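During the first year of the project, the team set up a workflow for recording each protein of interest as an amino acid sequence followed immediately by a discrete structure-token representation. This format lets reviewers and collaborators read both layers of information side by side without switching files. As required by the reporting guidelines, we include two representative entries from the current panel. The first entry is reproduced here exactly as it appears in our internal archive.
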Amino acid sequence: MSLKDRLVEDMKVAMKAKEEGKVRLSVIRMARAAIKNAEIDKKTEFNDDQVIEVLAREVKMRRDAIEEFSKAARPEKVKDLEEEIAILMDYLPQQLSEGEIRQLAQEIIDQVGAQGPKDLGKVMGAITPKTKGRADGKVVNQIVRELLGS
């Protein structure tokens, strides 16, 4: 079953759940709309990898919003966004731990022969496709910078 099909099935379940499924239903509808809009922009039907990219972007937007709402002392909005993230994470592949990212980054650094901070672009170019949808880009970048000694 493709990810888009799974979203449709889960949406039906959430609709039947009435009150308990309201948040889940709204998040799934938002995710399906974001996928549909991206498909329209690209003028193509998305496969699972492209759907994962869209969902990862939605998670990232919510994480960024959480920072802003935390600064603005809006705990109720932070809680709502965290709940939305938890629902979206159900559709993303298993996230890499910091240790796994660190290990992968070290392998890539050795593989491309990176010497220092000036080789950040080479390393990020090689590691990004391997972590796409499975790790936050900011975290990956931070770990790579740390390992390169910048």
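The second entry, processed by the same pipeline in the following quarter, appears below.
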Amino acid sequence: MRNNSKDIAIFLASALNDKKAKDTIILNIKKISFIADYFIITTAQSQVHLKTLSRTVIEKIKESGIRRNVNYEGDPSTGWILLDCGDIVIHLFTEEKRDYYHLEYIWHEAEKISMKE
């Protein structure tokens, strides 16, 4: 795997989908924000699933030799976990919290990236 942000974002989003995450999207935000280059947004089916998805991302980064520090914020009980990997930020939500925060609407100007690229 190349160590560029786009390839890593696609790899991590695919890993989340392999663990049954729902409605996973990748947004390219680098032209509209300095926060990161990519957001990954996905939905977990429960608090336990939320924890599993966050562990999956951390494990995949370590196993694949991806050079990223991961800062972890949130807790499964809050319905939202944020994994900050520097140029990639991953938002893991329960369905209720994803509907509430509706990040896709806030970042509607961002380009959606296909996971098949």
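For the second entry, the following points were noted during internal review. Residues 28 and 53 are 21 Å apart (CA to CA). The radius of gyration is 13 Å. Both points are flagged for discussion at the upcoming steering committee meeting.
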